[in-house]
Amino acid sequence: MKIKELIYQCLEEHVPQMKKEREENLIRWRNWSRDPDKKVVVFGASAMCEICIRHLENLGIKVDIICDNNRDPYGEFVTDNGRTIKIVSVEEALSGGHEKMCILAVGAQHFPAVSAQLERYQISECVMKWHLDFYLETVAMMCTQSTPFMEKIRELLGFYDDEESLQILWQHFLILFELNHIPEELQSLSMEKLCVRPQYFLEDGKYLGKQDIMVDCGAYIGDTLEDLIYKTKNHDFNQYDCYELFPSTYEELRKTVEKLPDEIQKKVRIFNAGVGEDNARVYAMNGSTTQHSSSALRNGDTETKIIRLDDAYNGKNVTFIKMDIEGSEQAALRGAKNVIARCRPLCAVCIYHSFAAFWEVPQLLRECVPEYSMILRHHTTFWDDSVCYAKIGEWT
């Protein structure tokens, strides 16, 4: 049996139970949030908190209070619906009356420490889900959307034909849904075995050729640029533009560029800006898991700007676009649809920041250029860093 049908059939077997579990949780959580004698508490005030509260509100679950061990974010949090939620200490949020449901918006690596801390308080229910944001997305997909979930899976599998891409999708499903009863043909796979390097420049830059303008969205501290120069040994580009949202990371990027050979330095431009659907001023927040990672959020702590690639490169020849921008990839692609349709560049776009991105990134790329051939490749030994690659012609 082909791997695509094998994956589909395995998920088809598991989805009814997954859907039942999510429906039961959704009903219970909604009822809890509507009871005036009960409180919904979100533990963790990092970037994941804002994303998860957005999902919870869309599911009809009202969060009453946010708590965190870190004092820096204490104050007020404003939701997309304009509600204000207090961010306070754990003691203030969890002490006193009212029955409480505590939802953990923190990385799974913190679960043991947080669980031990919560034992001091009377918590009626503690919600601990690996990648809570992804779990809440699947709740919406399975319980509130009109399109059957398995139709969505069929659509997702249809974007890719090569076996390695499908194996990567399977590994994501396996981890996300905690699947058991795995078909024997799929048991030997792992993210470690699927990991390839370098990221963004497959097979040591085999598909690059001579480049005109290369656009690096989410340039971080210049590591992708360094991979291009030192790992692929490819200096054959006319211009390399780096966009980095967060000011402190931008400063590290600037230092990296200053150390490059003069003949390369003069071809590199750096911008303290993010990339999105519109030109705008936004607030950014440092990521909680990586010192310099950042994302544009309503409740961020540093003001910066977003630019639209269609405006920045109107009439210019863009030959390569990379995007690793903490979940803003879809918005950035919508803001780059004209330049992608006109130039048909080689694209490398991260899909692992949200479950919706698994569908939306390849769909947006295909809408811009129907002729694109797309593959997935994975670049770590764990969940992160799966990238959708799109190019004209076959991947051979």
Description:
The protein has 396 residues and is an alpha/beta fold. Helix content is 40%, strand content 22%. The protein contains 16 helices and 17 strands. The strands form 3 sheets. Strands 9-8-7-14-15-17-16 form a 7-stranded mixed β-sheet, sandwiched between helices. Strands 3-4-2-1-5-6 form a 6-stranded mixed β-sheet. Helix 2 (47-58) packs parallel to helix 5 (132-143). The longest helix is centred in the first third of the chain and has 32 residues, at 3-34. The two termini are 24 Å apart. Mean pLDDT is 93; it is low at 287-294.
Key traits:
396 residues; alpha/beta; seven-stranded mixed sheet; six-stranded mixed sheet; 17 strands; 40% helix; globular
SSE topology sketch:
Elements: H1 3-34, E1 38-43, H2 47-58, E2 65-67, E3 75-78, E4 84-88, H3 90-94, E5 99-104, H4 111-118, E6 125-127, H5 132-143, H6 149-157, H7 163-177, H8 191-194, H9 202-205, E7 211-217, H10 223-231, E8 237-243, H11 247-258, H12 262-265, E9 268-271, E10 274-275, E11 280-286, E12 294-296, E13 302-307, H13 309-312, E14 318-323, H14 329-334, H15 337-343, E15 346-350, H16 355-368, E16 372-378, E17 386-392
Parallel strand pairs: 1-2, 1-5, 2-4, 5-6, 7-8, 7-14, 8-9, 10-13, 14-15
Antiparallel strand pairs: 3-4, 11-12, 11-13, 15-17, 16-17
Helix pairs in contact: 1-5, 1-6, 1-7, 2-5, 15-16
Structural class: alpha/beta
**How is the quaternary structure best described?**
single chain
Summarize the biggest pleated sheet: 7 strands, mixed
Number of helices: 16
**Helix percentage range:** 25-40%
Mean pLDDT: 93
What Rg is obtained from the alpha carbons, in whole angstroms? 22 Å
Low-confidence stretches: 287-294
Q: What is the terminal-to-terminal distance?
A: 24 Å
Give me the count of strands.
17
Give, in spatial order, the strands making up the sheet with the most strands: 9-8-7-14-15-17-16
Give the CA-based shape: globular
- Beta content comes to 15-25%
